[in-house]
Amino acid sequence: MSRKLKSTALYLFLIMGVIIIAYPVYLTVITSMKTPQELSQSFFALPKRFNFDNFKAIVTNSGYPRTVLNTLAITVFASLGTIAVIPMVSYAIARNMWEKGYYKYLYFFLLAGIFVPFTVKMLPLIKVMSVMDMLNIPGLIIVYISSAVCEGVFLYVAFIQGIPMELEEAAYIDGASTWKIYVHIVFPLLSPMTATVLIKNGLWYWNDFLLPLLTLNKSPDYWTLTLFQYNFKMTHAINYPMIFAAFLLSMLPIMVFYVFMQKKIIGGLTNGAVKG
């Protein structure tokens, strides 16, 4: 097969992938701008005009601003907790796992947690949260942080092991403590992986449905955007344009954020793979 033919086949494959991914987004956008009458005539046709009434109805809904604040608070505080806890744990493991057996066993124990499906631990987790009175927003944030530890440690440890020990040894000679070395030398060098872990988990925190459904669906005061969409859909089971408008409003911030940050995601994963 010639080089030109391979290039053409690759581009055709990529174009097909773009269409498969973009077409559902296109349907979401055009449906959100239709009236129920237009939707009943044709699901795939463009709207007769750009109609933003569905978006206005959702934004002016009395519960919508609260759900946005809840989702934002959960995402921000869970992300901050993630980058505060996981790099420290990973640093301790990476620098001690080949000298002290405890750290090595801890690393493989956490690594095994990656392979445990959520459905296996779902019922025990919710039971423990209920007993400890954690079926609320702070409890969900703690669960998010702890759930991100296993994969986060796996990524960080490989990255930290690629950082030369000579940097830390020179700092020790100059009288720096372990904490100062971590804060002023090691943590800044972890910025590519920190960006990757932060964005990856931030997307999960923002879009997650199952954990909020299990922990926060008891009261509208605790709803996140995904729960708002779920209950909104149940209430407005016929008005599909308004339901699609709710989906689009939830998707828009995270899509814009991902477009600007995708290079950091790919760069962090690539560096982590190389520096193992």
Describe the structure.
The protein is mainly α and 276 residues long. The chain folds into two domains: 3-32; 62-274, MetI-like (MetI-like fold), CATH 1.10.3720. Helices cover 79% and strands 0% of the residues. It has 13 helices and no strands.
CATH topology (fold) name of the largest domain: MetI-like fold
CATH superfamily of the largest domain: MetI-like
Number of domains: 2
Whole-Å distance between the termini? 36 Å
Number of helices: 13
Helicity level: over 70%
Mean pLDDT over the residues: 86
Give the amount of beta strand, in percent. under 5%
Largest sheet: none
Output the radius of gyration.
23 Å
CATH class of the largest domain: Mainly Alpha
- Helix-strand pattern: HHHHHHHHHHHHH
Low-pLDDT parts are: 272-276
- The helix/strand class is mainly alpha
Q: Care to count the β-strands?
A: 0
CATH architectural name of the largest domain? Orthogonal Bundle
General form: globular
Concise overview:
The protein is an all-alpha fold and 276 residues long.
Brief descriptors of the model:
276 residues; mainly alpha; MetI-like fold; 13 helices; 79% helix; globular; disordered C terminus
Itemize the secondary structure elements and their pairings:
Blueprint: H1 3-32, H2 36-41, H3 53-59, H4 64-96, H5 101-113, H6 118-131, H7 137-160, H8 165-173, H9 178-189, H10 191-207, H11 210-216, H12 225-235, H13 240-274
Helix pairs in contact: 1-13, 3-13, 4-5, 4-7, 4-10, 5-7, 7-10, 7-13, 8-9, 10-13, 12-13
